[in-house]
Design a protein that fits this description.
Layout (H helix, E strand, L loop, with lengths): L3 H4 L2 H25 L1 H13 L7 H24 L4 H27 L6 H24 L1 H8 L20 H34 L10
Length: 213
């Protein structure tokens, strides 16, 4: 029986390679940097609804947890080859991130912080983007998805981190690091400090300012 690979013409294989390259560029230069935009917009909404006076430090720490849940898989993906181990980390991070997102909204609502429709719409982007990135990677590396489903038995390197054969440029990694610092670490660090400061202010005992007779 003639295999599909034999029937595939060189032009078709070239077209598949072009699609793969375009998808990779989309992930690196479109989706990942674009992720900063809804993240920064979400911080703006937290500030407008005065998170420090409602859900406070608890919700801010949940935000830090969510960023860690997606940040670790992203950092590993930028440095290492896609294999069953890294796919498992990515899938686990996406699943845990979704559960934490539900906890985040529940915390905000129970604290009476108003989660406005526009903030809910921003959340829809923040929740869907990890799955968009992950499914795109799985399409690009379907062979590794098959290896994962088989338990990685045929590949001795399936369950260890393998450095990229073609590392990303230092300029690109520096740009992503700068974007994370400016659009994630600085604003959400400011949010946490603001919440902690408000909590300390509320915890100070009120002094009797009535003048002595």
């Amino acid at each position: 029986m003639t295999s599909l690979r034999t029937l595939t013409r060189p032009a078709d294989r070239q077209q598949g390679s072009d699609v793969g390259d375009a998808t990779t560029r989309y992930l690196l230069y479109g989706l990942l940097p674009g992720w900063f935009v809804p993240g920064l917009a979400d911080w703006v909404m937290h500030r407008r609804t005065r998170i420090e006076d409602t859900s406070g430090t608890k919700e801010s720490l949940i935000h830090a947890l969510m960023m860690t849940e997606v940040g670790i898989p992203i950092a590993l993906t930028l440095r290492y080859e896609i294999n069953p181990l890294l796919l498992t980390v990515q899938l686990g991070g996406a699943a845990v991130h979704e559960a934490t997102a539900l906890w985040d909204v529940r915390t905000a609502v129970h604290s009476e912080r108003e989660v406005k429709p526009i903030e809910q719409h921003i959340h829809s982007f923040l929740e869907s983007l990890p799955f968009a990135a992950l499914t795109s990677l799985m399409c690009l590396h379907s062979d590794q998805v098959k290896s994962l489903l088989r338990g990685g038995r045929s590949d001795p390197s399936a369950w260890r981190l393998v450095r990229r054969g073609r590392p990303l440029s230092r300029g690109y990694l520096a740009g992503i690091a700068a974007g994370i610092g400016a659009c994630v670490l600085l604003p959400y660090g400011e949010e946490l400090l603001r919440c902690r400061r408000a909590a300390r202010t509320r915890g100070k005992p009120t002094q009797d300012k009535t003048p002595d007779p």
